[in-house]
Design a protein that fits this description.
- The chain contains six helices and five strands.
- By secondary structure, it is α+β, with helices and mostly antiparallel strands.
- Strand 2 (53-60) and strand 3 (63-73) form a beta hairpin.
């Protein structure tokens, strides 16, 4: 499996991965429109233009089988070191359980180390108990309580 920064051509496949999820469907984002809307293209363009954001795709052959978004956050804590936030992790539903998610997350951690980050962090929905076990096996600790507010 190869990992790379997504291109505009990858966006429809990434949207399919993001939509293929029960919790996403509950939130009302489980259907990918036939035509990608302007807000999505604007978001992609903003990510692509920002050197602190990377939309990553995991590719096997010609198929996008996984994705995540990395955001590198500067901060004064931890001696001024950057932190990497991992978001929107998805593996194609037909390919889960094959170890691809572990490969993707290990790659992201290596990417954080390359950039000199001092910490990698992520959030996952409290209902995703399998994901909690998955991230713990990879060395992540549930050390903080997170809060979000939908706007």
């Amino acid at each position: 499996m190869d990992f790379r920064i997504a291109t505009r051509a990858d966006v429809p496949a990434v949207l399919d991965l993001l939509a293929d999820d029960d919790i996403t469907r509950e939130r009302g984002y489980g259907t990918v429109p036939e035509k990608v809307d302007a807000a999505v293209w604007a978001a992609f363009e903003a990510i692509d233009a920002d050197d602190r954001n990377e939309l990553i795709v995991a590719v096997e052959g010609d198929e996008v089988v996984g994705t995540c978004q990395l955001t590198f956050i500067p901060g004064l804590s931890r001696g001024g070191g950057e932190r990497m936030l991992i978001e929107a992790v998805r593996i194609h539903s037909g390919r889960r359980g094959e170890g691809l998610g572990g490969e993707l997350i290990r790659w992201t951690v290596a990417r954080a180390r390359e950039r000199g980050c001092r910490i990698a962090q992520l959030t996952t929905d409290k209902r995703r108990t399998d994901a909690h076990r998955f991230y713990a096996r990879l060395g992540f600790e549930a050390s903080h309580e997170g809060f979000k507010m939908a706007l």
